[in-house]
Amino acid sequence: MPETASPLNASQLRAACSTCNLRELCLPLQLSSSEMAAVEKLVATRRKVHRGEALYRAGDDFDSLYALRLGFLKSTVTSTDGREQVTGFHMTGELVGLDGISTQKHHCDAVALEDTEVCVIPYERLEHIASEVPVLQTHFHKVMSREIVREHGVMLLLGSMHAEERLAAFLLNLSQRFEARGYSRTEFVLRMTRAEIGSFLGLKLETVSRALSRFAHDGLIEVNQKRLRITDPDGLRAIMSGQAAR
Amino acid sequence: MPETASPLNASQLRAACSTCNLRELCLPLQLSSSEMAAVEKLVATRRKVHRGEALYRAGDDFDSLYALRLGFLKSTVTSTDGREQVTGFHMTGELVGLDGISTQKHHCDAVALEDTEVCVIPYERLEHIASEVPVLQTHFHKVMSREIVREHGVMLLLGSMHAEERLAAFLLNLSQRFEARGYSRTEFVLRMTRAEIGSFLGLKLETVSRALSRFAHDGLIEVNQKRLRITDPDGLRAIMSGQAAR
DNA sequence: CGTTTCGTTGAAGAGTGTCAAGGCCAGTGG
DNA sequence: CCACTGGCCTTGACACTCTTCAACGAAACG
Q: Which CATH number does the domain housing residue A101 bear?
């Protein structure tokens, strides 16, 4: 079992938000230089998390949020009787750890699916600075709200869509997020296993595998292990909307 | 189709948080009198929503949050192809509308399941006062985070539990929330239809009905239409955890 | 009191899960 | 460099849960 990465890491650096090319994703777009100076005080350090290690685990004390600089994470919750559910996959520029604010303890695990680097944002400092920089406060609230909206979408998916519809929606969502980060929207590498996709989508890994095979057979995608290419996005969209010829 | 309740309502009153007996649920517990005075400025008015009417609908402009004073609401999201999913049921003391912050538009419908009264909290005012009253800001962030955690729980339920496990978890959750509000934890009225329960749990109404009948047959509950009594909460807990004798 | 909405139950069928076997691939150690 | 290993993925056959369709009964509403 991978352990939580050590909190004191040789690779801790002073961060520099003003020069970070992710700030459009992770921070307000328009900041005056004095506001930016305040925001720079936010990020204490960076931290590296190796593939398979946890950024934090359920039950850990919460004291920081993390802005994903590089890499790929999954979040999982585990029920008292041991069921595990992937609640999300996180890409560059996204903020993780929001679940910890409510009780000062993390409620889920965040595990790196590839070597990952995050900016550590001490939460008390964020609250303090947010109360002085309104645009930051507003942005932070929007980030939390967006997470709530995202989860509504997942509930819709889990509650009312069939296996192939879920998978199509998932692939299109990944595609769109890769595109927003400047990568190809048609060709990318799945960082997660079939089992992890299945857990996220409320399906078994065999069902995921079969659905991928069927999409490939129908000419919607090409898939080779983790390598994926979307050849017919409109076809996927049709499937997602339940308009599929079956 | 029920329409959005008119924004200008005869029953709008000046609110008074300091004397509201819900403030332990909806607002920070410990406020100095000057802080309380600031918070009182938060709530502009109250608003009544009749059974079947909407407090807001997806696409409506967002400008306020709502603290539920009295009544019962459901939130629903609808996909582009018309699928509807209940994302939550809201009881007295809970805050709704958080989904609207992200884009200044509501992303879901909030519909009253019984005659309901809410305190209207203009969001700009909340942001302003929160930046001056740290305990309020902290509390607000916790409320949003708690919503995220709650949704993780729903994802776990939808993604990895069977029909009867879902329903048992749902009944126990309701029970606990009624108890927290001073009502009986063993006997209560379901404000929603079987179809709405089913939508929330990712099941068809017939499945909900059958599961309820089976629980009743097995002596876990007594059920008469919307009236429900939990006679064996431990039995329900066992079912929820998948330890059910089948 | 009629009409409509809501709830219950049965039978049949579809969609996923379960179980099992085998293939592919990357990493490891001889 | 190659064989070995273990993790990951694919595919088939079968079982089972849940949905679908349908009919009926009960409660709520005007």
A: 2.60.120.10
